[in-house]
Design brief:
The protein is mainly α. It has eleven helices and no strands. It is globular and about 50 Å long. The two termini are 20 Å apart.
Length: 236
């Protein structure tokens, strides 16, 4: 990998860590397209591995706001769906997979724009966890379902719970990818080398995360879901 490519990746993960550390979302949406352009072989292992230290930090920083019940149901469903996400890599062409997942995400976001406020229950948690297990394992992008479930909750609850769910799921996806020969240790080494860049973005997010109110957070969530769905439809 050239120095220019490494610099672009470092700047990208710094910006992405700042966005996700502030809002709880957005890292994969920012990093996956850039990594895919620079080297498609970086997906999904590099994106998943890069998110591990960031989500560990966010989950710990806002652990007092963690929704344990929701995180438990989401994680159980997410882990159960992880093998199916791996299977999708084998049976569905990447572009067609992105089209299906992206279309479902955009439709969910559009429905959310007109639907009344709701408090998520067990069915919402399980559904979001299952979809995340499929999409994150296959593409590295799994935030939209969780974001939509928590769009009406306090920002700190969204950030901490989504981070905790991501953390467990990323480790499970990485373990399965490597166990089945779909992982490359070079991608782990690159993610490790960029931990300082991720740390800078995460540290900067401390300056603004507490200033994001619920109304702005919901707007960000819906825009995030629409944009990420569009990105997936055209191919990450």
């Amino acid at each position: 990998m050239t120095g220019e490519t490494l610099t672009v990746l470092a700047l990208t993960v710094t910006a992405a860590a700042f966005v996700q550390g502030s809002s709880g979302l957005g890292f994969a949406l920012i990093v996956a397209p850039v990594a895919g352009i620079l080297d498609p072989g970086l997906l999904p292992v590099f994106v998943l591995a890069s998110m591990v230290p960031l989500n560990l930090y966010v989950a710990w920083r806002e652990r007092a706001s963690l929704d344990l019940r929701g995180a438990g149901w989401i994680t159980a469903a997410r882990l159960a769906a992880t093998p199916a996400g791996l299977a999708l890599l084998w049976v569905i062409p990447d572009r067609r997979l992105g089209l299906y997942v992206g279309l479902a995400t955009v439709l969910a976001a559009v429905v959310s724009l007109v639907a009344p406020a709701f408090t998520p229950g067990r069915a919402a948690y399980v559904g979001a966890g299952a979809v995340t297990g499929l999409t994150e394992t296959a593409t590295g992008v799994g935030g939209p379902p969780l974001a939509l479930v928590y769009q009406h909750r306090p920002p700190a609850e969204l950030r901490s719970t989504v981070a905790a769910c991501f953390l467990v799921g990323e480790v499970a996806s990485l373990a399965l990818l490597f166990a089945t020969g779909r992982g490359d240790t070079a991608d782990l080494g690159l993610a490790l080398a960029l931990v300082p860049a991720i740390g800078v973005g995460a540290w900067l997010s401390r300056l603004v995360h507490h200033r994001i109110d619920a109304r702005r957070m919901r707007l960000f969530v819906l825009v995030f879901a629409l944009v990420s769905g569009a990105v997936l439809m055209v191919g990450v």
